[in-house]
Write a structure and sequence with these properties.
This protein is mainly β. It has one helix and ten strands.
Length: 161
């Protein structure tokens, strides 16, 4: 079992290295929304979030992810979205890992940063992530790189100015 947890942690670490961060700015005002469910090379995800203003206090939403089998028995992460930046067809957000998520060793003290890219109708969506890591390790939540192709499902990013 320990080797499986280590392997899953290695997969997450690879995601950290692959994702990277961008320090762009996002448009302000309006209601920005993201939602989707899908599969990519390292796992599955389901999320929805919205932002109705310029502060993190105006963000609501939830994210849940499972590693691809056999890691899915050991890696299940979920949490409430605390930071959301939408910039055109890209979005970046952070969610602290909730207590009760697996693996227990990281829950409650860390967060995950996600970047989404909406390929539009008929286009290819992409996802990227960093973490889990302490939330303070992320310099905001502006969208970064999204290197993983979404092979099933759909990512929708709505940027309303």
């Amino acid at each position: 079992m320990r080797n499986s947890v280590r392997a899953a942690a290695g997969v997450l670490a690879a995601g950290v290295l692959a994702a990277g961060l961008s320090y762009g700015t996002a448009s302000a005002g309006g209601e920005d929304r993201i939602e989707g469910t899908g599969t990519f090379a390292l796992g599955t995800f389901d999320f929805n979030a919205r932002s109705t203003g310029d502060s993190d206090d105006d963000v609501t939403g939830y994210f849940e992810a499972d590693a691809t089998s056999p890691g899915d028995a050991f890696v299940h992460l979920e949490g409430s979205v605390t930071c959301l930046v939408v910039d055109g067809n890209k979005a970046g957000f952070i969610y602290p890992v909730e207590e009760g998520s697996m693996p227990g060793a990281i829950a409650g003290s860390t967060a995950v940063f996600i970047t989404l890219e909406d390929g539009g109708e008929g286009g290819t969506d992409h996802v990227g992530f960093m973490g889990p890591a302490p939330e303070a390790a992320f310099p905001g939540c502006a969208p970064g790189l999204a290197p993983f192709e979404v092979t099933e499902g759909d990512v929708e990013v709505t940027d309303e100015d």
